[in-house]
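Lab notebook, bench 4. We co-purified these components, and the gel suggests they stay together. Before we commit to crystallization screens, I want a quick structural picture of the whole thing.
Request: model the full complex, all chains together.
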Amino acid sequence: MPINIEEIRSQFPVLHQEVNGKPLVYFDNAATTQKPFSVMQAINGYYELDNSNIHRGAHTLADRATRYFENTRTAVKNFINAKEDAEIIFTKGTTESINLVAATFGRMEIGKGDEIIISTMEHHSNIVPWQMLSKEKGAILKIIPISEAGEIDIENFKKLLTEKTKLVSIVHVSNALGTINPVEEIIKLAHEVGAKVLLDGAQSTNHLEVDVQKLDCDFLAFSAHKLYGPTGLGVLYGKREILENMPPYQGGGEMIKEVSFEKTTYNDIPFKFEAGTPNIADVIAFGKAIEFIEELGKKAIKQHEDELLNYATKALNDIKGFIPVGTSKEKVSVISFNINGMHPFDVGMMLDANGIAVRTGHHCTQPLMQRLGLEGTVRASFSVYNTKSEIDQMVTSVAKIAKIKNK
Amino acid sequence: MSSIQDVQNEIIGEFEILGDDKESTIFYIMELGSNLPEFPDTERKDENIIKGCQSKVWLTAGMKEDKIQFLADSNTDITKGLISLLIRVLSGRTPQEIINAELSFIDKIGMGNIIGSQRSNGLAAMIKQMKLYALAYQAKQNA
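Here is the predicted assembly.
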């Protein structure tokens, strides 16, 4: 069923405003999506009626808050088709999820001379933790090269795999280019040499069906705020047997079973990895964000976003001076580009003057920009609430801006 | 030569004509940048890059008849426009004038709203670097 765009837009109050005297066009969805009323109401509702610390309270409010909190864990489990709730760990975001794996699994399993494989198009948060770990352990970080179009050739990946490969940590969808990587094949090949695979799902979980059992990834990291949910909240999925063998991440309350000054026994998963009072309100609200996505259906969302992507790509390609960056055949609704003779910062600022919000710069992927020989790009990323008329507004502005240097 | 305050008043007047239209204001700033004198390639080196700017800004200074002459360039057109405004106000002044200068035009034209907080930090870094040059030249004069 096609989606009712006006009905969807009516759920997002932030979209209905003027910026610099023009109707706001929000095309920075890969950075963060806007939040529907239901998410905001859940945050307020929790503080108005249910605020209480979870898991150990003997009173009704604590019980209610615990139930709502754990309901979201179940919703997340269903959302990515994990086997059980215990495989879902709440974190601060994708970055913390990756750092958690590096600090626990990484410290335990990766030693001197072992190899970690990442790709050229990783976000800094999937580079730096592995660099730090490699330095600490004397491990080797190997990089999968990419083509000019921004794609991984699976043959190049095969060449890097050895019996020393302990982990492949790879981005499912590139934040800077929108490329969808062939992760199913990557996971299969990595498992053949006994390596584990962490999937950075920050940009995929909102556009694609991500089924952790079908993909067979060992870890999946993603953020709530890119899924219409609150900021400062993320998820780490891990297979039970791996999580159980991992040492704890942080010490504190919640993650223990028993503590004496001589010895501490740790709690079961997922609580072993959730030290301290968690971000209760936002976890509860995240449940509403997942509901929002599931009511529309990922298939319908993807169809709408693909339509916008194709429409915008076609119109922008007709503009003199428009240079697309990242032209992979498999893409989500992200268009990265430059204007001949202009710096992306200037283009971004001029678009903002026209009410259009885009991202400019290196998108936290400096090695990728170096590979492409660019200082940065302008990135427009579309979401379910965007419209063709918003794209028209952007195309008109881009054409006007491009004309300055491309007469 | 008109005083630092006179030049600032001129700039305020020009931006008043542009009014609240952000797009025309940005176009105007970019146009100002395109009129900057050619920056020598030999000076486009790392030690001349101003720290604290998101885009690249190169700045050098020389002394001519007790007055400091600034030369600058940037890889973005808007930043070029911003530094050209600073050069218009501060170049060709004595070190003491530069050190004492209060650049009130930046607030008066509402630059913070036009260029946003990140670029405002960059602009502050440019001013700081120009004043540091002035201090260095003054110290040299007094040596």
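Chain A touches chain B through 14 residues (CB under 8 Å). Worth comparing against the SEC data before the next meeting. The mean pLDDT of chain A is 96.
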